[in-house]
Amino acid sequence: MRRLPPVLLEDGCPRDLLSLVRTILAACKEISFRVGQGELSGVLGSTLDENIQGETQKKLDVLSNQLLKDILLESGYVKAIASEEEDYTVAGEPNAKYIVSFDPLDGSSNIDINSLVGTIFSIMEAPEGSDAADPSIFMQPGRKQVAAGYVLYGPSTMLALTTGKGTRLYTLDKTHGSFLLTQDFVSIPEETQEFAVNMSNQRHWQTPMQNYIADLLAGDTGPRAKNFNMRWIAAMVGDVHRVLSRGGIFTYPTDTKDPKKPNKLRLLYEANPMAFLVEQAGGLAIADGQPIMDIEPDAIHQRVEVILGSKNEVEKCLSYYK
Ligand SMILES: O=P(O)(O)OC[C@H]1O[C@](O)(COP(=O)(O)O)[C@@H](O)[C@@H]1O
Ligand SMILES: [Mg+2]
Ligand SMILES: [Mg+2]
């Protein structure tokens, strides 16, 4: 099986970008080890702190953030970072080429039940001559990503990665510490009979989403004339991994539950990297009727609607909004 470096170099990936990806993966291997140790790691449970978004931080959120932040800032490859667990962007090497946004631990509510969690990351180039301390260097649409991926800490530790030359899956060989290519050129089936949404929010959705999901639930007795299955892992990494593995539609739609927070998922370090992986695998990733990666961000912790997955099913869902 092939290791990640030669695969990326064959794609024409610049050596400094490869080194940056490997730097991120070094931290992820450490997180994978801690997650695998579970109760023995001493990092389960909550802290007494909240992040800037008002969410209680788990010990593993804080630890994962620290591991990624330290290794990235010490590497010299990174001009600045933006993290879910950092209130503001953090400046790195002033002359470095890249900026990295990340969700150090996605699926935090799964930590204490020994269920799926992961790390999501997005890499862009900093604008020429920009100031490392200027947060506006992150205000670029997702189309500008040069690499994006996630590491899923599941029964096996897997990496999904794209540098714009398709999406590939790698599995961590824990005996040697290498990520080995286990699926070349992921292709999401265009058709599906599986959807993922947190149904408990149903009454708060906008009418088009209510109607769309109602028709899926009606199954072969409804207008779709076929039965749909539902899955919800409560970790975007897990749900998107299933979509990459066997297709499906995943959505966290706009809702009215909390008028101050109409959307849940964050653009820079959740929606954008997942959109890049999904589009590179032949799927669609949409928010408010436009491709997620075309959105011009205006804040580092900006939240967006997410509808992604199998092409024909995402288009079907969007047709309810017309
Ligand atoms: O708890 P809910 O409302 O089902 O939300 C689940 C969603 O929240 C998230 O866990 C948010 O990520 P964090 O754990 O990084 O805050 C997504 O991964 C997931 O899709
Ligand atoms: Mg998350
Ligand atoms: Mg998180």
From TrEMBL:
Its EC number is 3.1.3.11. Its cofactor is Mg(2+). Pfam families: FBPase, FBPase_C. GO terms for molecular function: fructose 1,6-bisphosphate 1-phosphatase activity; magnesium ion binding. Its main location: cytoplasm. Substrate binds at D106, G107, S108, S109, N198, K264. Binds 2 magnesium ions per subunit. It is an enzyme of class 3 (hydrolase). Mg(2+) 2 binds at D103, D106, E270. Residues 188-321 form the Fructose-1-6-bisphosphatase class 1 C-terminal domain. It comes from the Bacteria. One of its GO terms (biological process) is fructose 1,6-bisphosphate metabolic process. One of its GO terms (cellular component) is cytosol. It is found in: Cytoplasm. Residues 16-183 form the Fructose-1-6-bisphosphatase class I N-terminal domain. CDD domains: FBPase (cd00354). Keywords: Carbohydrate metabolism, Cytoplasm, Hydrolase, Magnesium, Metal-binding. Pathway: Carbohydrate biosynthesis. PANTHER family: FRUCTOSE-1,6-BISPHOSPHATASE-RELATED, SEDOHEPTULOSE-1,7-BISPHOSPHATASE, CHLOROPLASTIC. Homotetramer. Belongs to the FBPase class 1 family. This is Fructose-1,6-bisphosphatase class 1.
